[in-house]
Amino acid sequence: MIKINNLNKKFGDLEVLNNITTNISKGEVLVIIGPSGSGKSTFLRCLNLLEEPTSGEIIFEGKSITSIDNDINLQRQKMGMVFQQFNLFPHLTVLENITIAPVKVKGMSQDEAETIAVELLRRIGLEDKINVYPQKLSGGQKQRIAIARALAMSPEVLLFDEPTSALDPEMVGEVLDVMKGLAREGMTMVVVTHEMGFAKEVADRVFFMDKGSIIEEGTAMEIFKSPKNQRTKDFLAKLLT
Amino acid sequence: MLDFSFVNKYYMFFLIGAKNTVVIAAFSVVFGVVLGTLLGLMKHSKIKVLKFFATVYIEFVRGTPLLVQLFIIYYGLPINLSAVPAGIVALTLNSGAYVAEIIRAGIEAIDKGQMEAARSLGMTHVNAMRHIILPQAIKNILPVLGNEFITIIKESSIVSVIGVPEIMYNAETVRGNTFKPFEPLVVAAVIYFVLTYSLSKLVNKVERRLKESD
To answer: In CATH terms, is domain B19-166 a member of 3.40.50.880?
Structure first.
């Protein structure tokens, strides 16, 4: 579904992504792990062009989204994104946060968008928060709403940028549960995370990234049980101790 | 001894002056906000030409005295504006540059994650500005605009030099008529102070209201 060819990203002289080539297929849950500064978030943000690649090509559903004449807004509607800092819209209620994009971008009727929003809120167990403003929510609730906001556009793929890193430990579980539910339903997901438990449980494939490259890739089993690369071993050893 | 007995005879000069000052300042701030919003958005724009023009304009206006700008508008332009419109135009062009900076700062104070979240949902830049960024930026901008209005009320005294009959000009007239060099200026100062002080109280109130709704 997403093809990435020779993707490079430089910030000035600093090479953040180094010739990344890979495929992400429909229904796959891809988890990207790696030390901070390894380029994993930048890679994720390149997929919907929040970060503009320096060179290389990204093909989404057969269309090159990196070509100049492409209108990225069309693809972004199908690529939901969940951020580390949630980025809910503070001036809008929970309901408005979820309905604004379907209504303003897709031209959906307010009624239809609200029906979808209520359904989504019920699914994540937050229907009682429908008219609340984001600052009244806990971190875990915010992130679940942020996931609902992305889902309201009925995306083909969801990109998660360290979705639990800004959460208090006791709230990580509720967000991961929502994500696991999505994974089981066959949602295509690309997840940058430090949650190894999550990776082990639902990842179809795991990338270990370091210094802008994919150092090692394999099933969760392969990466966690028998990493081949020394850097992967070092990284995992540090995490486990 | 100070003698304010002239107020009985000349109070209308001050009242009319105060009215004119408020009207001129109000027009200038409204037009200034329109111009400033335009310039602020241009300065925020990715289109280089717009950004360049806005930057040059803002730097030029902020780097030259209002008095010079006023004389250029009143004496220098090929079209002949009478005093009041010339005063309003000069104050508007001047205020627009400051308002632009206020608006730019208000927009930039919004976390950049807001724009990213909006864009990640497929919104265009313009829609993201309209539905997500500006409604939040307004809260930062409004109180500062109130302060800009207060500034303009004070600065507008300068248009007295081209003969706009506002507070300062009329105080000058009273000075000439009564041969009192000092007292009319005290009256003018008090009127300015009453105007600006009550406005700043109002601004504080609005600011608190906006904070509460957070």
So the answer is: no
